[in-house]
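User: Okay, second chain of the day. Same drill as before: sequence in, structure tokens out.
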Amino acid sequence: MSSVPPHKDACKTKLLNLLATKAYCFGDFTLSSGKKSKHYVNCKPVSLSGRGLSLLSVCMLDHVELDSSAVAGLTLGADPLVSGVSIVASQQDRDLDALIVRKQAKGYGTGAWLEGPLPDIGSVVTVLEDVVTTGGSSLQAVKQLRNAGYIVNRVVAIVDRQEGADLAMRENNIELISLYCVKELIDHAKTLRL
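Assistant: Same drill. Structure tokens below.
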């Protein structure tokens, strides 16, 4: 990852191209929420590629609260995101650690829910997410972080499927910021196929 972030507009355009070609699929799918959909978004082929993670990290860092001590997210989708954003922040001389929220407490040792360098209790933590549909995964991460004594005000997602996550976040006093909505990916994928 370059220590000088690319121009934000160019970064978002390159990222949209990657997501539309590598993350978006049209077909018959069952989502993690149990809903059926013709549109599926799996960001892992992008977030687990060097180029994709570099672009994602620059774009996501732009929306992380300035007073955040850490970025966190539910394993597995957020694992590369929190690491990448933390690295890009470091390259910009910003202290921002990465935390991974387990889906279940560790069954041995400390029984920890959170992995990483834990900030002081009362610190602000921004949650990162790949795709939000109903917001359930993000809210699971928020709940664990709040239970551990952290302040969580914002979730930054790559893609919002616009199927209720925004309302669920508002009901839990969370601001949801998404780099893209699923319609943008659908429309862009169509233009690339023409």
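Residues 26 and 39 are 5 Å apart (CA to CA).

User: Thanks, on to the next one.
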